[in-house]
């Protein structure tokens, strides 16, 4: 088996090279070639000694997940279906905007959390993605976008922002996600600022605390309901980590966070969580948590049994939050004609129903 160098962050690459008798500066050279230049061919890494190149060609590779399908929407949003083996595939979405390009990355094949309104949850859970599969989405996207002539937004790379909002629950794949985050932040690799990398979580409280210590980046929390009774239904993990515990974890996170607010995502479901009274309840709930709200018009998928709130309802809901001084944006629906919008990422998941094992491990 070849060693996939996309699996290594700076620390583990240095350690692996040391075993091979190589100096730490070699790790720095390699990181730059792999992540900044996007080079996968060791022969072209010209400043690396011949001996080391020969060893790498024999023992190592730089292998991101392979492309199965590419779709480009009229608004420039790209969706890539990437092969992660054994009949499974995950989706990555690139959203171009003026001056920046956001990549939405998947962290698991499927998801175990079964949120009522999410297509990924419907698919069940197969497995966690490895570091190479997570960071490989970013590696791959930068290469692909450079090839297709998408104007590099910054430092020659098209991706300026990363959101872990694709398939899966990032904090249920903690160690691999943190190694991938280290690479995203590392100046020798992608050099993104902590503020431009966002982890989105449904609220696994102990893991929010661990992230605060291990690698505090911007945090988005999928809230979706103003009280436990409704959130228990929409986001079942709430039965384990109810709102009071979640909000307390958010306050603790802010002590170390790169931004001085938490983003709360709130999917707008017609007649379910979109009443004026729900908005007013949110205002009360948020008194103690500096936050912004991002309202997400529900993106339907076959068999969901749910409807998107009408635009006027969303405006009125946003109005109540903003009147109370909470900065509120409504997420533009991008790429929905190619099923690339939030909650529509289904990929291909062979469900082996390891849900319970997985949820227990997340705790
Ligand atoms: N598991 C993580 C990240 C993935 S989902 C989390 O729960 O945050 C990214 C965002 O899309 C979450 O806020 C999620 O609740 C939202 N989402 C899921 N399904 C959706 C749908 N059908 N329409 C709109 N938003 C959805």
Give your account of this protein's structure.
By secondary structure, the protein is an alpha/beta fold. It folds into 2 domains: 59 residues, DNA polymerase, domain 1 (Orthogonal Bundle), CATH 1.10.150.530; 273 residues, TIM Barrel. The chain is 35% helix and 19% strand. It has a 10-stranded mixed beta sheet with strand order 3-4-5-6-9-10-11-12-13-14. A two-stranded parallel sheet has the order 1-2. Helix 10 links the parallel strand 12 and strand 13. 46% of the residues are buried.
First and last CA, distance: 32 Å
Structurally, the number of domains stands at 2
Kindly state the mean pLDDT as a whole number? 91
Q: Provide the CATH superfamily of the largest domain.
A: Aldolase class I
Cα radius of gyration in angstroms:
21 Å
Q: Largest sheet at a glance? A: 10 strands, mixed
Low-confidence parts: 353-363
Number of helical regions: 12
Find the count of extended strands (DSSP E, 2+ residues).
14
Topology of helices and strands:
Elements: E1 3-4, H1 10-19, H2 24-37, H3 50-59, E2 60-61, E3 66-72, E4 78-83, E5 89-97, E6 100-104, E7 108-110, H4 119-122, E8 125-128, H5 131-147, E9 161-164, H6 174-185, E10 197-201, H7 205-214, E11 218-222, H8 228-234, H9 243-254, E12 262-268, H10 276-285, E13 291-297, H11 311-323, E14 327-330, H12 355-362
Parallel strand pairs: 1-2, 6-9, 9-10, 10-11, 11-12, 12-13, 13-14
Antiparallel strand pairs: 3-4, 4-5, 5-6, 7-8
Helix pairs in contact: 1-2, 5-6, 7-9, 10-11
The structure holds S-adenosyl-L-homocysteine.
